[in-house]
Amino acid sequence: MGDSKLILCCFIACILFLGVNGENPYRYITWKVTYGDIYPLGVKQQGILINGQFPGPHIDAVTNDNLIISVYNYLNEPFLISWNGVQQRRNSWQDGVSGTNCPIRPGKNFTYVLQVKDQIGSFYYFPSLLFHKAAGGYGAIRIWSRPKIPVPFPSPAGDFTVLAGDWYKRNHYVLRRLLDSGHNLPFPDGLLINGRGWNGYTFTVDPGRTYRFRVSNVGLTTSINFRIQGHKLKLIEVEGSHTLQNTYTSFDIHLGQSCSFLVTADQIPQDYYVVASTRFTRRVLTTTAILHYSNSKRGVSGPVPGAPTIQIAPSVMQARSIRWNLTASGPRPNPQGSYHYGLISPSRTIMLSNSAPYINGKQRYAVNGVSYVPADTPLKIADYFKIPGVFNLGSIPTWPPSGNNAYFQTSVMAANFREYVEIVFQNWEDTVQSWHIDGYSFFVVGMNGGQWTPASRSSYNLRDTVARCTTQVYPRSWTAIYMALDNVGMWNIRSENWARQYLGQQFYLRVYSPANSWRDELPIPKNALLCGRARGRHTRPF
Prior knowledge:
By secondary structure, this protein is mainly beta. The chain has five helices and 36 strands. It has three domains: 26-144, Immunoglobulin-like; 158-312, Immunoglobulin-like (Sandwich), CATH 2.60.40.420; 348-534, Cupredoxins -  blue copper proteins (Immunoglobulin-like, Sandwich). A hairpin with a 6-residue loop joins β1 and β2.
């Protein structure tokens, strides 16, 4: 009788679990990851292709869709894909970074099972290991609103993806060896738009019609400025948040960030430059694509339109102008502004300070004096199996220590489910920082120059700041965010400057619930890859 009850309980639990996801569509995707010759800057390179493509194929999904993505690794190195901005609700098992997943070994495959739960917007995927991002392997993620959820703009005539960022002519393994030897990367060789160099990509539009451009900075080291010759950019979305629809002539997009603009083809029919250029660099790199009117008989002409270069004040003002559209629906029908983030008092403040120390004579990067080193076993898997010695909670302080000493550590910060925290990113370096938090969207409540103090809160926007997953911190400045820790798991907090991330400017936030309930966190996947000290163990029977 006891066994029968146990079986019945398990059956009911499975039905409840499957019912949550089963009512939403499943999309099945198969990717073959290979090396291939690419010529993005006119020089032959070894690129990472997905199904023979660079950039990789788009992922198109609707809010709450389930994505079943089978990845076959035909490289000669371990490989993982991560999903920049996809929150993996209750499911850090699928996050695709070294702290959550064992790598897919050469010649093997792994199937990601993830849900774009309660999300809309523009994001991208990328390879997360071994500096593979410098070889490509990235692509766009577009999450569309459900048909009955109102969207605060008319349906555009077309939807274009712009994956822009800096690029190196050297192969990824050469760059990796350079970093491993204790040196920083040189200045990039150029910029790409959708994997192409100067005038290598064309967007075709019909006169008088309006189009959506989803722009992501998928580069390694530099912020970019985006603009279209003679056309206005109407901002409508930032990383899943509908924004007030301000209009810009050019727009700064920092490493790892994504946003959407409406662009109306309201100029004389001809071809126009679509431009990306580096921001905050003494030497300015520029690349172009073509906006082609379908009835155009004239190619691009005139100088490439200019934009700010090293000036910081205009970028700060622009960043502060990005506001949440309080009356627009997000992924659910209720208005975004119905969540009053500014009326909730944070339970604690965490300050994170980046630095660029030399440790044992080699260039490293650190957070609060700790330079992250990967463990031999993914942290999430070690936590599940309670394997000792892989990491220690509290191995990174929640406040910058005094002094300039830095050390190596597999750094993990402890946090509790349903905490509401204030995080201050303090940047004393002379370069713009870009920070990303996996598993979450947070509210960028303030940014300013100098040292953050409690008095800085008087300048916070507690009404309509935007919610996003990646934020910039200007030189010798701070940025503050509010974040509700409503997603149990092991979550990567990292620099989006990929050299800094690779050399230690990252750590993991373990958001813990003692309930041990599927309501708070999904169970370990049955197909989870086990490696390191977890090798030989078993996941679960069903």
